[in-house]
Write a structure and sequence with these properties.
The chain has 55 residues and is mainly α. It has 2 helices and no strands.
């Protein structure tokens, strides 16, 4: 089971690396950075809500 997990992680990282260059060429570096802002903001707000509930 561990080998399957490792293979899936390796495949995911490899595909993300290969497609990131195409994404940056198609959209530009600034646009890619702007698109990463929303998921990061959602994660931070979720963590803050979780921290408030555990206090």
């Amino acid at each position: 089971m561990q080998a399957l997990n490792d293979t899936c992680i390796f495949l995911g990282v490899t595909l993300a690396t290969l497609f990131s260059g195409k994404l940056v060429n198609a959209l530009g570096w600034q646009t890619v950075n702007l698109y990463t802002g929303l998921p990061i903001a959602l994660l931070v707000s979720g963590l803050l809500l979780l921290m408030r509930r555990t206090d």
